[in-house]
Every structure is written in structure tokens, then in C-alpha cells.
Amino acid sequence: MTDDAQPPDATGTEADPRPSRTPPPGSAADLARSLYESYQVRDWAAAGRVLHPDVELRMPATAEVLTGRDAVLGMQVGYPEPWGDLHVLRVVDGGASAAVEVEIVAPDQVFRCAAFWEVAEGRLRRGTEYWVTVGADEPGPR
After folding, report:
1. pLDDT at residue number 36
2. CA separation for the pair 3, 92 (Å, rounded)
3. Domains of the chain
4. CA distance 10 to 56
5. Which of 104, 92, 99 is nearest to 115 (CA)?
6. Is-above-0.85 flag for pTM?
7. The pairing of beta strand 51-59 with beta strand 123-133
8. pLDDT at 99 over 70
């Protein structure tokens, strides 16, 4: 072991000084990733398990506010198919909150979402989703 190395952990190997990239199970990041991955496979029961019963989801682009697990899931279940393939691009764990970047590749468009979630009582309680259509807006004058 070098002078600046970490002492061995319980397994006898040197501890890795870098932070883990995988959030612990049940973390805000893990819950948020699970939500969007459940949406992709249309596993509404799994999605419901990570949402707080009194979840609030805000979507500023459309001024929608969905309140309650049934309302959030109802919007997803009722969304017209095919809505494309959803991919979680990244998740940032912030302790009791998480940020998620999602991409949906639809038959004729690509959408991106930046979502921010807060956790209460071990479930996603408050969320905000900012949706855009990739390439839909022209850049302004420069």
C-alpha cells in the first residue's frame, strides 16, 4: 500500500477513493431511473411503486400540474402509442433529490426531458419535467 492509498476495507483490498457512480438502492437517483425505465417497458405497477401516493408533477411547458399517483400514471397510460423508445441518458443523485435526462426517439421526432425529483417517505414526491422537441426551435440571432 502506498502512503496516499486508502487502508484496506473489510475484504482486505484497498478502498477505492473515488465516489461510486451507482446510487444506492432506494436513493433518489435509483427511484428516478426506475420510474423512467418502468415507463419504457410500460410496467405501470413498477412505476407506481416508486411514486408517492400524493406525488405532484409539474410540466411548465404546458402549465400542467398532476396531483396523485393515479393522475401521473393515468397520463402515461393514456398517452397515444407509439410514443417511441425511452432512454435514460443520465441521472444525478443529490441526496433527497435527483436530476434525470431522458430521451425519447419517436418514429418522426426526438424528444428530451430534464426532470427534477424530490423524495419523501422513500418515494418520488415532487417532480418537474421540462420537455423539448430536439431541433424544433431555430436559434435566435447572434
Report:
1. 97
2. 32
3. 28-133 (3.10.450.50)
4. 42
5. 99
6. no
7. parallel
8. yes
* pLDDT reading at 130 higher than 80: yes
Contacts 24+ apart (CB under 8 A), 110-115: 110/134, 110/135, 111/84, 115/32, 115/36
Taking the C-alpha atoms of residue 131 and residue 60, their distance in angstroms, rounded to an integer, is 9
- CA-nearest of 76, 66, 5, 86 to 44 is 76
Q: How many CA atoms lie within 13 A of 83 on its CB side?
A: 18
Query: What are φ and ψ of residue 32, in 5° steps?
Result: -65, -45
Report pLDDT digits (tens) over 48-77: 999 999 999 999 999 999 999 999 999 999
| The residue type at 77 | V
